[in-house]
Fold each of these.
Amino acid sequence: MLILECPYCGVKAEETELANGGEAHLKRFGPGSADNDFESYMFARKNPKGVHFERWRHSYGCGKWFLAARCTATLEVFGTYPAQTAEPPADLQAKIKAKRPDWKGY
Amino acid sequence: MSTRLSKGGRLIDRTKPQTFTFNGKSMAGFAGDTLASALLANDQMLVGRSFKYHRPRGIVGSGPEEPNALVNLGTGARFEPNQRTTTTELFSGLTATSQNHWPSLEFDVGVVNNYVARFLPAGFYYKTFIHPRFAWKHVFEPIIRQSAGLGQVPKEADADRYEYAYGFADILVVGGGIAGLQAALAAAKAGARVTVLEQTAHFGGRAPVDGDVIDGKPAEEWVKATVQALSAMENVTVMARTMAVGVYDHGYVLAEEKVADHTPGDGRPKKRMWRLRVGKIITATGAIERPLAFAGNDIPGVMLAAAVRDYVVNHGVSVGDRTVVVTNNDDAYRTAIALKEAGLEVPVILDARAAVSGDLHAKARALGIRVETGKAVVKVKGGKRVTGVAIGAQAGEGSVLEEVACDAVAMSGGWSPVVHLFSHCGGKLNWDEAQAHFRPDANRAPTNQNGEAMVYAAGTANGLLTGDQVLADAVAAADAALGKASGVAAASVTVPAEGAMLPVWIMPQGAGPALKMKMWLDYQNDVKVSDVQLAAREGYTSVEHTKRYTTLGMATDQGKLSNINGLAVLANALHEDIPRVGTTTFRPPYTPVTLGALAGESRGEIFQPLRRSPIHEWHEAHGAYMEPVGLWRRPYCFTRGAESHEASVHREILNTRSNVGLLDASTLGKIIVKGPDAGKFLDMLYTNVMSNLGVGKCRYGLMCSEQGFLSDDGVVVRLSDDTWLCHTTTGGADRIHGWMEDWLQCEWWDWQVYTANVTEQYAQIAVAGPKARQLLEKLGGMDVSKAALPFMAFSEGSLGNIPARVHRISFSGELSYEIAVPASHGLALWERLIEAGQEFGVMPYGTEAMHIMRAEKGFIMIGDETDGTVIPQDLNLGWAISKKKADYLGKRGQERNYLASPDRWKLAGFETLDGSVIEDGAYIPAVGNNPNGQGNTQGRVTSTYHSPTLGKGIAMGLIHGGLGRMGEVVEFTKMDGGRVKARVVDPVFYDKEGARNDV
């Protein structure tokens, strides 16, 4: 029962009001793309023990999708941010790097 | 025998007698008794039978760790199996019956297992019941199911109610013993919002029983004063009878409060499930005493030393006149002293340690109690009750030096901190060599969302076993949880000096196989020292595997007594260190939770929300037989008189095809998509083009997942230049709206599109049939002629003075209008149509008539023709897939070679040669077998009905080759093993030219 702060409405939302949308920052491959690109877009998912980026929707709140960086092992939440971005904010990446020097990047 | 003493018992009220029954026998106890103490007071030591060997089982403990004394509680609608007598508060009228025996507790046939126990070792299920293969299902399993198992399943619906409650705190203290109370006091005085949970009805834990002296006064006085002080503080909530069930992510804690367990039927909820969200958690959960493994340690009358003491001090109950105490530590001496002071006999204290010192030992000697050091119980004598012990040297192999008559044995193998809550969310443990137990490692505590420690163990739960250490540790835990010094000084505790304990895992240490086969580790599941050693010999080196192979610790007590002993025996057998072998994983719940409490109020009518259309009440008043569609209830059909549902459906269809029918289509999803980029967006969402749909027009469209599989369908309406209305299936509305939002927010966030799910804002009524136009013309107000309102167009206006949008779309194949009106006008329009339609023979029709009529027309249904593996091309819907669009969701997926293969099963119609209806789920077999030995198939039915219009069975299905096999006769399977012949036909069975609609 995680608590994640919705970056839109500011509510510290309990997991019961959120819906998980799987891995964040996937790149969509459409018509004409190579089979292996499409396969990795569709099926290949990271399953790290450690820093992970996820999609969450504040389903029973403001309805907005947002992204969260958290540690799957310790449940530490490094931050949440709006979904309208291709990569995690630089300050969040710096924060994670400072806390987890071994982190290889998102 | 066990009996009530004439005086003593700090928790009982002798002025309030309570009567109860056990196995039908009337018994008496006092207010303040547990069921266990009351049974003992009535000399009922034998309370059940073990799981595997059906050996007699007596009460062992005095708390939630009890493995044996489980009973069926209550009767009828208040029947509950597997209730622990040690945690059940006694009340007048309580009825309990023992479990797991046949025909009676005293005489049990299953005990035959006991005499063949040598043939039923660990893993005997796996070894014995493998061959012959058929025998498991037909012979072994029925017999095992009859003889195994504990309580029975309740047969009636639960008469009690349960509820959820929500709580919040900065610091949650679990445990109302002296450590918990001290920690709570420190945290509360520092200003934190504190909640304290105590599992029993009494605060203070062991300290009042053990005779600790706090601030110069008996512990009981300090406990009372502290509870009063805490209860008076505004920032503190103190809760008794509340068990912390589990610790979860980010400070989420589940706790079960026994509200009316002891006052059944008084109108209050039986239990309250607390969902607590807290900042930090202090576990002051104490410790559980370990049994010693000696032969016959399961005979009724052998109990934990502290439990024996509890019954004497708390309830004034003696478990025997002559109690032998056997121990490896000083604490058990307290039991001997308490018994002696109560006027009972302690023939001998057998101490496995070679040398003993300390205040308790001195006091026992001073009371004249015989103490034998370096000695062990070789064997307990007795069957259903202890009659004596055979004594030998702990260092020996079991030679008997002496036999002592007794009727109870109080054993203590040391204490294991209750680390469950600390471990639930990832806390790690260290092995404490001196105390021979696992204790929480504060440096590897579970962490919260900020990466900080979230759970702190305090006092005995932290491995500090004496009172003087406990309170200082409690303040330290409070300070750590607060993140600052509370400034509160711990109360001072005076305790006797204790000597070191000696780890003893089997007794005597050199015992041979005959003795080890009678040394129980897990009383409930009948796991013995010999079983764990056998598992080790057979190659089980992992504690998790050994647990599952031997069932050690898998009983309802989850190994609270057995785990550490079993682990030590396994480690010794493997010649490994105990910490290297490790523990099994601690998982919630700490103790079993009633399923009713987990369900809370979610039962019966409010199990889930119910969605009603604006016309719902009319349906219910007019014979509707409802079916669930998602959270909606929709009329399946409207029955008249004694008519069967099938007859109703057929009547509704024939009437719609010859006169006019009304369908409540309000549940259909309605999503507004608006904005400058709305057309571009819909072109991505649907497989066909929606951007070029003319204003005022309707178009059928398909939506696919990114993998290309058909996910939803419906009619799209172009309301204005920048506004579209997308109809979805009833079940798909929320899902598709979420799907749209996902793409708009996460992928194409720069597109200017707005969506709104307006499903519930509109009532929608389909008016279908050859007389539909006459009916609408009678209502008046709008031109619904073919010229003004052609097929696949809509117009807005006022129909019978109700603002309406009338679409000419048809799912039945008839001349059909779907009329959308504001939800508040839905019932009025429906009633107007019913009333005005009388002269045209109007009848409402339900979902089944709708399904059959669409099947007669060969229209697909999401969920019938699709199952998440079907692409539109499979359903001959290629015409609805744009070839021109560069991209749409699912296009790339459909390019995959398997989906583009000509070998895919495709949609066709089927008619049986004899006119019968193909069975639901029937397959079309093919020759040969697949690699798994199953028969090959070449197709299956997807929709199958009796068509009242055509007077014969019709079906749609997917078949290899699809419509290319038109005219061919194939066979479908039947449930009885037979086959039915059917011809492949065009799936449009009725009005192929669409003439009925084209008027």
Amino acid sequence: MRPDLSIIADLIKPGARVLDLGCGEGELLAHLQAHKRVNGYGLDVDADNITICVRKGVNVIEQDLDAGLTNFPDDSFDMVVMTETLQSVRQPAQMLNEMLRIGQECIVTFPNFAHWRSRAHLLCNGRMPMARHLPHNWHDTPNIHLCTLKDFERLAQDMGLRIIQRFVAGADHRGHPLMSLMPNLFGAIAFYRLGRPSAA
Amino acid sequence: MQNQGAAGNSVGIVVPQRFQAGDDFPLQCDEVLHGFAMVYETYGTLNAAGSNAVLICHALSGNHHAAGYHSEEDDKPGWWDACIGPGKAVDTNRFFVVAPNNLGGCHGSTGPGAVNPETGAAYGPAFPTVTVKDWVRSQALLADHLGIRRFAAVVGGSLGGMQAMQWAIDLPERVGAAVLIACAARLSAQNIAFNEIARQAITSDPQYQNGRYRSTGSKPNSGVGLARMIGHVTYLSDHGMGRKFGRELKSGDIKAARDVEFQVESYLRHQARTFSQRFDANTYLLMTRALDFFDPAEDFGGDLVVALRQASADFLVLSFSTDWRFSASRSKEIVDALIAARKNLVSANIESEHGHDSFLMPLPRYVSVFKAYMERLAERAEQEAADAP
């Protein structure tokens, strides 16, 4: 399994109800169903992805995330997951609110725009950064809301969201000691496990 | 002309069969049928464990002839031959497929054309109102007769999908999966309005004779044809019709406005003609009524979520982008209720220009997701058979 998905899978309790937003080929849900008796749904809009999910026996619903998630009742999932998709939705803050309305907790991952390679790329070449984890040209990228770890944490703070756990990984989705030291500089992919604002 | 019956992807020549239910069959409308006949076809072989049966429910104008041919010379295969056959979405190499003609039909099952044993005359317009729930119960009797305790899947498009939904709610222990294609949880006012126009077209045809046309030797072909024309327009999309017919003329001179016939007119007239020859007026009225009355939530305080909570089946819900008879948003209502009812669910909205009729066509994406889903069910059925004592 993709290393980032196995990091996420480790965060999910057996028997949990999981909603995977932008589930792609359903790898995470298939793994969770097989190994953790997890029940849930994946959402995607890509026709081929949906058929691949079906072949894996994953519950997949064709739904555009930008069209909203109002069809999912409050508190209907234990965990709502969104891997490397937050940066391409139209309203990331609203999305986070929705994820924590539907789920007790959520996990989001996104590419860190402050990774040293991106910084160096912009500084040295004077051009929009492209890298393994940011493979698109500026004009055809689906990533319309790129951010850094600091940006994301500021948003979480403003929204009053609880950051329960944070991991960073390289573009290969593996960890490295430097990353925990200076995550915003050396982490290519950020993982956040978030909870609702504590009732204060 | 020889048909493709012998080709590898057809079920070939099929022979309709007949099931006779002897016991009284009480209907939802409180009337009772003193037994009934149901014609059906089957394709493929039921495995020893009985785990690989699939029920195909037909739509408004369908019947038991879902796949294959009736003779070597038969030039038209069954109505869903695109999806039923060896290696097709409903793979007859793996599934035992049962396709009945619904009660009230006009192709052999007991319906308005049958003789009422109480009067010795044909029922005609006096044939009792049948509902989707009645159909489910009558199909269950056929399943008993065939030794099928539980269907691996109950599958249908349009009104057929409604039967599949009702099956899953009414007989949860007998449905492994329900496949609901281009369907709705109930009809909208607009849907009912179109049905009413179709019914008015039939009943206002002088040949209809208050439904007693059989005994008077008349036939309300123009009314039935008109009803079909109205229905047919709602089955296609504006764009699809434009692509197929445009403003092409079949004949005449449009500048002189003489004897003008557009291609689309000619097409509709042809549809009307052929349909009125093969379909009974009273059955058409009855089928549209069954559609209008369908509302599985009704028994559960109008709450579709509660209704679907009864089901233990997995669900596949498919809709088509240009379907306006039962649009994608109607399928989404079902999907949302299934989410709230926490059912196993796959849903997809297929891009297609063919409107409601898309469900009958071998559209690549449609077939691919449908086939992938059915393959999982076939694997499950085969696993169940292997695990059986």
